Amino acid sequence: MKLYTRTGDKGQTALIGGRVPKDHPRVEAYGTIDELNAFTGQALAVIEPLPELAEMAARLKVIMNELFDCGSDLSYDDEHQPEYKLTEEYAIRLEQWIDDYQQQAPEIRQFILPGGSAAAAALHVCRTVCRRAERAVVALTGRHTVNTEAVTYLNRLSDFYFAAARAANAKLGIPDVSYIPGLRADGLSR
């Protein structure tokens, strides 16, 4: 099987059930999910070699498969009513993982900036891309038939990435990066 088909050379792509322009909101939504999955894979590549974060690596592998399910759910045209893969159980499990990570990190007393460890920085990138994916899916829901569990899942998933980033820093003994209002280039506050 060849990787290229030439069927998209004129700016169209296939959905399950039809073809649409490549800038269609549905393609934007599941394309951003695909981008998020790639960034999650990058975070996994940073996290997997760290024995302290073995459980987190296993959870990221589950999430990568769930993101594929999410993209699949978004790839149906409006005429098809599939049996969606994402269910409320996906978000409920994420809530359990978030609670677990919150217990592993210090209490939040100020705004947190992305960073600390390389693992946390990678997870913060995932968090921001997840928020963009969520916005794309919300925009899609206003005009097209969508599995509404996708919005819930992505909303919870961005919280998961934040909690995981903080837990990664805590487990690695690296402090979170705190927001310092008015920080100047010379390192002093105004």
Automatic annotation (TrEMBL):
Source organism of the structure: Paenibacillus roseus
Protein name: Corrinoid adenosyltransferase
Keyword set, alphabetical order: ATP-binding, Cobalamin biosynthesis, Nucleotide-binding, Transferase
SUPFAM superfamilies: Cobalamin adenosyltransferase-like
Biological process annotations from GO: cobalamin biosynthetic process
Pathways involved: Cofactor biosynthesis; adenosylcobalamin biosynthesis; adenosylcobalamin from cob(II)yrinate a,c-diamide: step 2/7
Isomerase recorded as keyword: no
Subunit organization: Homotrimer.
Catalyzed chemical reaction(s): 2 cob(II)yrinate a,c diamide + reduced [electron-transfer flavoprotein] + 2 ATP = 2 adenosylcob(III)yrinate a,c-diamide + 2 triphosphate + oxidized [electron-transfer flavoprotein] + 3 H(+); 2 cob(II)alamin + reduced [electron-transfer flavoprotein] + 2 ATP = 2 adenosylcob(III)alamin + 2 triphosphate + oxidized [electron-transfer flavoprotein] + 3 H(+)
Residues in Cobalamin adenosyltransferase-like domain copies: 3-167
